[in-house]
Amino acid sequence: MSTGELLSIEPLELKFPFELKKQISSSLLLSNKTENHVAFKVKTTNPKKYCVRPNTGVLLPRSTCDIIVTMQAQKEAPPDMQCKDKFLLQSVVASPGATPKDITPEMFNKEAGHVIEECKLRVIYVPPPQPPSPVAEGSEEGSSPRASATDNGNLSSSEVSRAYVDSHDKSSEVRALISKLNEEKAAAVQQSNKLRKELELLRRESNKSQGGLSFKFVIIVGLLGLILGFFMKKT
């Protein structure tokens, strides 16, 4: 903060979060420390690059004023993000009841004997804040997102709760899958036993049917033999 006799200026550095192809604004707060009307004027070494609103004005006694400085969109960044642009804020006591329309260049002419208070302001480019890096889902190179979070600091209560719920849900799914596999295994064993019993029953019935046919065949052959023998005796 500049503490001149007429105005206090805050801040003394115009900071711009620099981004390419984007207009960026910074603000100044002027405060009239006197009981007089104070006229001010803002100059810059690069007027085509900046727009200052208002660039001139009159502060009433003990009043304040906000000045907005807008930097035009830039196509390329300066080397090492260093800016050589400067601003100069001039202030002078104005006549009582003066308005911005009453301001003339002659008021800020030192050669005319006016007492001019001046304050130089620097321009600083600030790199824009970097967005947080996305957390990859799943593990990578043996490290999991949860492990990375614990390495960087303590997990919040919501993260702990979410991790517990996820773990609980996964364990429930595993138990349900194991139970389903056991049921399917038991059903398969039961079906296998049933098929084995049916196969054994069919084998037994097949053996019985083969034995019955053989016995009947013997009886029929014997009867035919008796009948043939009976006819042969008659002849």
TL;DR of this structure?
The protein is 37% helix and 27% strand. The chain is built from two helices and ten strands, in the order ββββββββββαα.
List the helices and strands and how they pair.
Elements: E1 2-3, E2 7-10, E3 13-17, E4 24-32, E5 37-44, E6 50-53, E7 56-59, E8 64-71, E9 86-94, E10 117-126, H1 145-152, H2 157-234
Parallel strand pairs: 3-10
Antiparallel strand pairs: 1-2, 2-4, 4-8, 5-7, 5-9, 6-8, 9-10
For the secondary structure, the number of strands is 10
Strand order of the largest sheet: 1-2-4-8-6
Average pLDDT, to the nearest integer?
Answer: 81
Tell me the structural class. Answer: alpha+beta
- Give the uncertain stretches in residue-range form: 147-152
Shape: rod-shaped
Distance between the termini: 154 Å
Largest sheet: 5 strands, antiparallel
What's the helix count?
2
SSE pattern: EEEEEEEEEEHH
Helix % is 25-40%
Radius of gyration, CA atoms, in whole angstroms? 51 Å
Strand content: 25-35%
**Chain oligomer state:** single chain
